[in-house]
Amino acid sequence: MIRSAKAWNLSADRTWRQWVHLVPMFLVVGLMSGCFAQTAAAPQLFDLEQGQVYGPVPAPPISIQLGQSVIKASGSVGPTDGPEGSPAIWEGHALDLEPDQERNRTLFFFIEGEDLQRVTLQINDQEPLVEELAGVYLSGELSMVRWAQEYSLRVTAESSGGTVVSSVIHVTGEDARIESTQPDEQPLRMRMLRMGPTHVREVQGAGYQGKIYRHVWPTCTSDCDLTTPGGVLMAFVSGPADTLLLLLDGAIPHLATGLSYWPNPDYLLVAIPVREESLVEIAALSGAGDMVTGRWDRPAT
Predict the structure, then answer these.
(1) Its pTM surpasses 0.90
(2) Residue 267: alpha-carbon gap to chain centroid
(3) Percentage with pLDDT > 90 across the chain
(4) In whole angstroms, what is the distance from residue 220 CA to residue 54 CA?
(5) What is the percentage of the chain residues whose pLDDT exceeds 70?
(6) What's the whole-number average pLDDT of the chain?
(7) Which of 1, 13, 160, 251 has its CA 20 to 30 A from that of 116?
């Protein structure tokens, strides 16, 4: 299927759109508040096992996003003036088909999926770049020479189960379009991770050079020991997230909302600095009311 370039539409109806986005958040908060009133113990949003997540529909195993620019934004989940700072920090990334302000001829990519086994990136008809065992997700940028006027980047990703997804971005001048074997609209999905190393690979070819970032982060279904150096709990959310709700030991939920208005992310990284908490629960809602949740329990000592 073919997707045309889009522009950010900062319309005058921003106020009522923000209120519409708050509706599902109020419903969830009301439901959670009812749970608080019933028991003094720390409640759970859902009866989930360690590292398990809940979602409204089966999510596709692989997501590929391509663009000529990246919009990045960050903020706090909950208040920033607490004694220990923000309960969590979110960082959103949105890939856009419009070129950046400097009109650099750069192509950006993001590939995420369960058990990514092999990813290939090919500029025009050159020899493909191959990444084996791509980790939790793969991202990067490829910069073309200034005088390049027509070029393309094809990305093909394969999971260990044999699922293959392919997308290609075609650029002519400053205009771009995408052809893909995946749907335009991606459902919400969430994974609970422990932040790990990021490996950088510098690449170059005829008329381009760039970097590929491979994020080797363990999931909380296998290894989520946050006591080791660099142990930060991460909620990785891909899809049309609008609102984040965070519960720490069943306390009043911390919120971040309006994300679908800005930056309208393709994916979110939510860093949760676990201190003395024994139970962390997080939910992400879309503007359409879809929801996914994740949970972390402190390991028994």
Answers:
(1) no
(2) 2
(3) 51
(4) 14
(5) 77
(6) 81
(7) 1
